[in-house]
Amino acid sequence: MVGAGSWGTTFAKVLADGGAEVTLWARRPEVAHEIREAHRNSDYLPGVNLPPLVTATSDLGAALADAEQVFVSIPSQSLRENLEAMRPLLPSAVPVVSLMKGVEKSTGLRMSEVLEIGLGLDADRVAVASGPNLALEIAKEQPTAAVVSSSSLETAEAVAMVARNRYFRSFVNTDVIGTEFGGVLKNLVAVAIGIVDGVGYGENTKASIITRGLVEMTDFAVAYGAHPETLSGLAGLGDLIATCGSPLSRNNTAGRLLGQGYGYADVVAQMHQTAEGLASLAPVLALAAEKNVDMPICRQVEQVLAGTLDPKDIAPHLTTDDSEPVGERTTDARQTQGRSRLRRTIERALDQLRHGGRSAGGDR
Asked: Does 28 belong to an annotated binding site?
């Protein structure tokens, strides 16, 4: 396991409770020492005892030696620089599993793509794990599920067989794009939910944003080749519900601070861990623009971060001055727009007939 933050340590516990021997790599020697000697990681999982099958080291080579599977859980924006050190130490032919939910700022690449490039891997050696996985709840052995995705079903199944125990179940799919983008995009919606929560809006507003947020997530992911049903599964809707509804969510917490009036710099200073949604927002909106995907919720979060939108005004997309109803689903909206255009064309034609070939406004 590369990374000994809250999620990396929790997933190490998941693996060990399923019977695997796990070596955690911790950047700080004191964290590795505490895990190794006291079976605790008090900085990230206070009060949680780790199984005897979990050990730790600050020596990356020792952590990777003889590994059968390698799990990576480090902040997305520092992933690439860490891969330079990992590449010569990685055992050949082992699967590499991303536990990260972010998009690289400089390139817009998903984490699996960064792993493939940075480690020189074929796609079928890379898997991603995602779902409604709040670390502290899982560390306390509260039952949950996740999905393991790889372009190789064999790789996904091999990882899922290891990543399961009495309180943690792993499902599989081969839609890596949908699985990863679900984990990325729900963070942005969770920031929006945190903002409206901080402002003091109630459950109707939050439920509406979550629902419309899922539409944005699906439209975006499908535009990049994902299967829409993936966004209705554990990596999409499941993760969205958990992240938007829990104070354990770092993205929800960051949004709540923004809603209470704190500026971006103050929020970053108060957060002891990385809120991936804040880092992923700009590259996601750039990717959306490339595919002409409209993401009003994410755009408004960007405006709040920039200080150009009052947090209490983050929900205008729920009100409208349109004179005609629009479809709830994107396809409905397109059909509605098409019918509206046809109706207006017919009305203009009838109007011209009534006025002898001239428009009601006179000759043109």
From this structure: yes
